[in-house]
Design goal:
11 helices; globular; 254 residues; two-stranded antiparallel ribbon; alpha/beta; disordered N terminus; 13% strand
């Protein structure tokens, strides 16, 4: 495929993201954004923070409902995208990759759930009135990564630095610690990975005092959350058995 004439810029990527959301809405489809594009769209302070730390654009991450899959390829074809057929077959309709040969933009689309090192169920969260996934889900999508890259760490620090952590909050611009604690309280493996990443965030010299305090608050809420029977049974096995899913996809897809 033809490479873009220039490196992608955030303005270009976010303009295309908003256009895709508008086209999907006109077709009666539900699309929500996450990843770094989602963080930038969600709150201007996050945009400023990522710009200052030179977080470069990569691609657009979206999630849709399974009933909207029937119109998904039509939507992207109308905007000049081509579907990755190999991935389509491998993922059996659970994930799509679209590439625009003119702009060089790649768009990853997950269906109902985000399947990475750990699975995040977001279907019931897609109907909230927001172009992005809720902050809690965007943060969980980073905390579930077993081997964080520098960009992943930057995204985590940025979200925590620009958003309050409040147990039980329903505010759009606050991170609900209770929701995150409940998700992790049902899955020991996810808990093991996420708490390790939060602990590393607290101790990271690059983390601001404000972000470190909020990461510590999240850890406290996760610790206090009652754990499910499934969590307790898996905890007995501990690290003797691998606690994450192998991701048979390129590392730069999440």
């Amino acid at each position: 495929m033809t490479a873009p004439a220039r490196p992608l810029g955030w303005d270009q990527l976010l303009t295309e993201t908003r256009a895709l959301l508008a086209d999907a809405g006109a077709r009666g489809m539900t699309l929500r954004v996450f990843g770094s594009a989602g963080v930038r769209m969600h709150c201007p302070p996050s945009d400023d923070s990522l710009s200052q730390q030179r977080r470069s654009p990569k691609d657009i991450d979206l999630v849709c409902r399974r009933e909207d899959r029937r119109h998904l390829r039509e939507l992207f074809a109308a905007r000049g995208y081509e579907v990755d057929r190999d991935l389509l077959v491998a993922m059996e309709g659970r994930r799509y990759l679209f590439r625009n040969p003119s702009s060089g933009i790649d768009v990853d689309v997950w269906v109902d759930d985000l399947e990475f090192c750990h699975t995040i169920e977001v279907r019931d969260r897609l109907l909230l009135e927001d172009p992005t996934l809720p902050l809690e889900d965007m943060l969980l999508s980073k905390l579930q990564i077993v081997d964080l890259t520098p960009n992943d760490r930057l995204d985590i620090r940025c979200m925590l630095d620009t958003h309050e952590v409040v147990p039980g909050s329903a505010e759009r611009e606050e991170i609900d610690a209770t929701h995150i604690a409940r998700v992790l309280g049902r899955d020991w493996g996810f808990w093991r990975t996420a708490t390790a990443n939060l602990t590393a965030t607290v101790s990271d010299e690059a983390t601001s005092p404000r972000a470190a305090t909020r990461a510590a608050l999240l850890l406290d809420n996760v610790e206090e959350q009652p754990k499910s029977l499934r969590w307790k049974v898996r905890a007995r096995v501990g690290e003797r058995v691998q606690w994450w899913q192998d991701v048979d996809l390129p590392r730069d897809t999440y």
